[in-house]
Specification:
The protein has about 500 residues and is an alpha/beta fold. The protein has two domains: about 160 residues, Ribosomal Protein S5, domain 2, CATH 3.30.230; about 220 residues, P-loop containing nucleotide triphosphate hydrolases (Rossmann fold, 3-Layer(aba) Sandwich), CATH 3.40.50. Helices cover about 35% and strands about 15% of the residues. A hairpin with a 2-residue loop joins strand 15 and strand 16. The structure holds zinc ion (ZN). The site of zinc ion has 5 residues, from loops. Zinc ion binds next to loops.
Length: about 500
């Protein structure tokens, strides 16, 4: 019996599992079959791979060719196995030696003429290969920058199947090594706070949000700079840690959204889906195995819902689950996948549907105005700690404005406040105030009575829910961190309550 073993990777969400591909030739009438839960795209690989092999001046055996992919119970999809299937057949057919492919993972889709095409998810695939103990990777040339992010793997780039065949026969110069990494500036610089006119309340809310990791609502008429302000938030956040950067890059890789030259995502992503986006585009979905949506692309970054009240309630509801759990589970035909979705939410909204620049010009009946913002209310808004009412910029506020602070100045305060919080919660493993669980704030880290008396009164009168009280405590801690105070004062609690209570309509 002629048999070969070649490695590739199956992805489920951003988790990969090494897949062993065996090829067997003979034992039946001439045809090609794949066993081991292939999806439709993978089943089509038979024809693609056969054409690519023939068009690379190689023979496809005139016998039964059987490919077995294991673990068999794992659903496998897509076109990323093409190269591994072709090589596996060629080894089984004694056309190329097996030894060069030991401990080597092969990724790439084959074009009919034998060219090797880019596939999504190269980074998470190679991380999985490394975990499985493989030491070498052969990927399509365009994937080299992304592949080189994985240390500890000997990465080689191939442009065609012929190159891989030539390499395996001993001409090792044929395949390319990745270029040494060059320091490239992040692809999109967030705008600077120095360009935001007026809006002292909005700026302060943004600083507090950045320092504590809180969600924000910015409400106000068009032209008050809500979107501009929201776009400044990623610039106030610390850069991603190495671990976070790889996690975020893996999600973007699976989504096919990486930059070709500098693939590593090092700054918190900023994602702003349109209010007409489908549920699949927003939270993830699609046929077969679900793809990541906007909420996962915003992982460890900022998700802006501009014109938030225009989002259909089904979209906002889907968002709520992710806000609670920090991840999203998506069940589709070919299985359940989980994507991370730990983002900071910014809601920006007009206060009424007619949205005039001057509020005095509003023509909406009072009940229309109420109903408009009520779409946001309830469980979603209950998770938003900071609510800000943005006012139109007047000539007066212009005149009073000295040069506004720039992002670097505010970021310095944010960094200091974050360091204080991280130090305080380090034993518990929480990084920001927004991550601290309510019970801990009420017990181990409870504040003395006089400090919380305002909250107690609001709770007793029913003006505040228990969850709302926890959220106030978190913001109060952030205000104390920004002020350099060891713990919140009654003033900090009052300001936190004010942020929450603020009437936005
Ligand atoms: Zn109106």
């Amino acid at each position: 019996m002629v048999l070969s073993r070649i490695w590739s990777v199956a992805l489920s969400g951003v988790d990969g599992i090494a897949v062993e591909i065996e090829a067997d030739i003979g034992g039946g009438r001439p045809r090609t079959q794949i066993v081991g839960l292939p999806d439709a795209a993978l089943n089509e690989a038979k024809d693609r791979v056969r054409a690519a092999v023939r068009n690379s001046d190689l023979q496809w055996p005139d016998q039964l060719v059987t490919f077995a992919l294991s673990p068999a119970a794992l659903p496998k999809g897509g076109s990323g196995y093409d190269l591994a299937l072709a090589v596996s057949m060629l080894v089984a057919d004694h056309k190329i030696p097996p030894d060069p492919f030991a401990d080597t993972v092969l990724l790439g889709e084959l074009a009919l003429d034998g060219r090797l095409r880019m596939v999504k998810g190269v980074l998470p695939c190679l991380l999985a290969a490394r975990r499985a103990g493989l030491t070498r990777a052969i990927v399509p040339t365009p994937a080299l920058p992304e592949a080189s992010l994985v240390s500890g793997l000997d990465v080689l780039g191939a442009a065609t199947l012929t190159e891989v065949v030539t390499w395996s026969r001993g001409d090792i110069e044929v395949l390319r090594h990745p270029d040494p990494p060059v320091a490239t500036p992040p692809p999109t610089d967030p705008p600077d706070l120095v360009d935001v006119l007026g809006q002292p309340e909005g700026r302060w809310a943004l600083e507090v949000a950045a320092a504590g990791g809180h969600h924000v609502l910015l409400a106000g008429p068009p032209g008050t700079g809500k979107t501009m302000l929201a776009r400044c938030l990623p610039g106030l956040l610390p850069p991603l840690s190495t671990e976070q950067a790889l996690e975020v890059t893996a999600v973007h890789s699976v989504a096919g959204a990486l930059s070709a030259d500098s693939p590593l995502v090092t700054i918190p992503p900023f994602i702003a889906p349109h209010h007409t986006s489908s549920v699949a585009a927003l939270v993830g979905g699609g046929v077969g195995l679900a793809k990541p949506g906007a909420i996962s692309k915003a992982h460890f970054g900022v998700l802006l819902l501009d014109e938030a009240a225009e989002f259909a309630s089904s979209r906002l509801e889907a968002l709520r689950t992710a806000l609670e759990e920090g991840e999203i589970r998506l069940a589709r035909r070919d299985g359940v996948v989980t994507y991370p979705a730990r983002f900071q939410l910014v809601l920006a909204t007009n206060v009424c549907p007619c949205a005039p620049p001057r509020e005095a010009d509003c023509v909406c009946p009072p009940q229309t105005r109420r109903r408009y913002l009520a779409r946001l209310s309830g469980p979603l808004l209950d998770r938003v700690d900071l609510r800000v009412r943005m006012r139109p910029i007047t000539a007066l506020s212009h005149a009073l404005d000295t040069t506004p602070e720039n992002t670097a100045t505010v970021r310095a305060r944010v960094t200091e406040a974050r360091a204080r919080a991280a130090k305080r919660w380090s034993a518990q493993g929480w990084r920001t105030n927004a991550e601290t669980p309510g019970p801990a704030l009420r017990r181990e880290f409870a504040l003395p009575r006089p400090v919380t008396s305002l909250l107690d009164r609001a709770l007793t009168s029913g003006a505040l829910t228990a969850r709302g009280a926890d959220r106030c405590l978190r913001v109060a801690w952030t205000l104390a961190d920004l002020a350099g105070a060891p713990s919140p004062t009654p003033d900090h609690v009052a300001s936190a309550l004010n942020f929450r209570d603020r009437k936005v309509a």
